[in-house]
Amino acid sequence: MNHGLKILTIQEQIEIALKSLNPRNVVKSCISSRTDAGVHAFQNTMHCDLLRKNEDCEYDPQFLKNGMNYWLRKKKETIRITNVLRVNDDFHCRRQIKKRSYMYRVAVPFKEIAPQTGYSALTILEKNNAFIIWRPIDMRKFMSAAEAMVGTHDFTAFTTVKSLREKNESPMRTVSIEIKLGRTALKQHNPGLEFWEVYVHSRSFLFRQIRRMVGAMVQVAIDELTVDDIQQKLLKPCLKATDTKIKSLPACGLYLSNIYYDPKDLIYTPTAKTEPDDLNPADKDADDLNSTDEDEEVLDASSEKI
């Protein structure tokens, strides 16, 4: 969404949707995964602390979901909230991720396409939603290149040296890869094309790692690189400069597909209310002695309702 001259991020738009519900506190969120411009997302997660003006009760998750989606539809945003959960106060949507999955879509022709035709081979619905290769590829070599990158490796050659230095992060990553024959929205309007989906899984990724990994797979499939080249780049990466032999594919074909957590981390455990500090221990004992089973049941029912 363009507010004047500023284009808001998805995170900022969701924060505005939350503010429309008039919470008591200032809305500050944390998003689990940030993507480059042009990258799509089927799913993302974020967390925030949200206090209702009525201090005696909390927000209902379904109310939050409906309220945010109402605001987003009203503003004609292409964002939808699919689920809202109440989690423990120490939950962190980024630090507690177990695995991220990205998908890269590649359109492969049955016969060679003239590059000067641009993306006219794709329908308007597929424009900027997949990367099209101009000629047929050897899928066996494509998959062999993927197999060479599965496991724990030094992926320095599949990012930029500048990014590694700026972030001061390790280039070691453990990845798994799945390749599936995909679908298109209007198959009858994309004749002569196959859509392949490359799913790459890891806990975290380096800058442009997936786009360069799939780029290397394409290069092997069209005989610009060999599987041995890929293996050598993983074993002996150049540490002085970014490897320019590996091509980075456009952002349009990349999708954040899924984010995985330990199910236990998503279970809310209410904390027991503590006794006021000014309560005399003797008074507390007297209250315990005078309470009845009926009183305890009423207290339990009341606490469950809240």
Keywords:
disordered C terminus; single chain; EC 5.4.99.12; TruA/RsuA/RluB/E/F_N; 11 strands; RNA binding; Alpha-Beta Plaits; two-stranded antiparallel sheet; tRNA pseudouridine synthase; isomerase; 306 residues; globular; 28% helix
What's the arrangement of secondary structure elements?
Layout: E1 2-3, E2 6-7, H1 10-19, E3 29-31, E4 40-41, E5 46-48, H2 61-74, E6 97-109, E7 131-132, H3 139-149, E8 151-154, H4 161-167, E9 172-181, E10 193-202, H5 209-221, H6 227-235, E11 254-261, H7 281-290, H8 293-305
Parallel strand pairs: 4-11, 6-7
Antiparallel strand pairs: 1-2, 3-5, 6-10, 6-11, 8-9, 9-10
Structure commentary:
With 306 residues, the chain is of the alpha+beta class. The chain folds into two domains: 10-94, Alpha-Beta Plaits (2-Layer Sandwich), CATH 3.30.70; 98-260, Pseudouridine synthase I, catalytic domain, C-terminal subdomain (Alpha-Beta Plaits), CATH 3.30.70. Helices cover 28% and strands 19% of the residues. The protein is built from eight helices and eleven strands. The strands form three sheets. Strands 4, 6, 7, 8, 9, 10 and 11 form a seven-stranded mixed sheet that branches. A two-stranded antiparallel sheet has the order 1-2. A two-stranded antiparallel ribbon has the order 3-5. The radius of gyration is 26 Å and the shape is globular. The two termini are 37 Å apart.
